[in-house]
Write a structure and sequence with these properties.
Helices cover 32% and strands 18% of the residues. The radius of gyration is 19 Å and the shape is globular. With 340 residues, the protein is of the alpha/beta class.
Length: 340
């Protein structure tokens, strides 16, 4: 396959591939490992054992919104975990949203990796459907795949995957599928807040809250930018941290209801006093875009004005550090915004 001019695959330390976007100046995943990042910041903090136990008496589909789907690692990681853990039949519905259809054409190569061998039974149909439907569809149409996985214990996992090829904010505001959707988990994996602040607003997070509240669901993301934690909290979520990876000190987990316990395998913890202080400072003021249509420059400018006018304390001097998501070898792709 000839790589699109603006995109190129790069290796990561766990052997999986990420995609570097020349236009955005970022890669899609942590250089410590694309699949490892998906497991650390998305699949494990989802606490699938807890979900499986809670839904055992009244089985229902597991519903995942994979926002900024990219190469699909967050979905693949969740499927791998379900395949490993589920002892009974489970139906899984994934709705992925990805604006760049060219990104999806790399999925056949991603799914051919040895570390995704447990998904091999579905890879052929999945790869061909994504590749050919993506190339032939307009950006208003969806790529849809239905298939069955077998868990390690022999139970069926019935998977339905719908990929919406459009802007995330348009999907949240207008798409009929998302308008009536109740979700268990949102995997939010947009480019970093300093690159795409319009995708990290309190208003996007409020859209997630409305879709998660019926199932007491969670938002899972790699970013620990203070504006992200502040935006999630302002949207009504309870905010926690997930485990560190590489040069990243952790990710963010946001839940509709307070989390009463943190199983060790999830890597979740409460915020420290210093982190709470940062979220309460001007750095914790969220990005805003109530109409879900502002440009990134406008979103950035409006937050800067809000910070200048705020009565909140400035960020503590000892905490003035920029936490960068390491993405490209020998390149500094820019900070993820001040981390909390």
């Amino acid at each position: 396959m000839t790589a699109p001019p603006a995109l190129r695959l790069i290796p990561t330390e766990d052997g999986s591939l990420a995609c570097y976007d020349e236009a955005a100046g970022e890669a899609t995943h942590n250089l410590a490992g694309a699949l490892t990042e998906a497991l650390t910041h998305y699949a494990r903090p989802a606490d699938l054992p807890g979900w499986l136990a809670a839904s055992a008496s009244a089985p229902r589909p597991l519903v995942i919104l994979d926002a900024c789907f990219g190469l699909g690692y967050n979905t693949w990681a969740l499927l791998l975990e379900c395949q490993r853990l589920a002892k009974r039949p489970v139906s899984i519905r994934v709705i992925g949203v990805e604006q760049n259809p060219e990104m999806l054409t790399y999925i056949p190569q991603i799914l051919s990796a040895p570390m995704l061998e447990p998904l091999k039974s579905i890879s052929t149909s999945l790869e061909h459907n994504i590749y050919y439907q993506t190339l032939n569809n307009s950006q208003e149409e969806a790529v849809s795949i239905s298939t069955t996985l077998i868990t390690d214990s022999g139970a069926p996992l019935d998977l339905t995957l719908d990929l919406l090829i459009e802007d995330l904010r348009q999907s949240l505001a207008c798409h009929p599928v998302l308008a009536r959707l109740a979700v268990d988990f949102v995997c939010h994996d947009a480019y970093s807040p300093n690159r795409a602040p319009e995708l990290w607003t309190q208003d996007v997070f409020a859209q997630y809250f409305e879709r998660l509240k019926a199932r007491n669901g969670r938002v899972l993301t790699y970013s620990t930018a203070a504006a992200v934690g502040g935006g999630l909290r302002a949207a009504g979520f309870h905010v926690y941290r997930s485990a560190g990876l590489g040069r990243k000190s952790g990710g963010t987990v946001a839940s509709v209801a307070p989390l009463g316990e943190f199983p060790s395998q999830t890597g979740i913890r409460t915020l420290t006093g210093e982190e709470e202080t940062i979220l309460a400072s001007r750095s914790g003021l969220p990005y805003r875009d109530p109409a879900l249509q502002e440009t990134r420059d406008s979103v950035t400018r409006q937050r800067a004005l809000a910070q200048a006018a705020s009565s909140r304390a400035p960020r503590p001097a000892r905490s003035l550090r920029q936490e960068t998501r390491p993405r490209v070898p020998a390149e500094d792709t820019g900070p993820d915004g001040p981390s909390f």
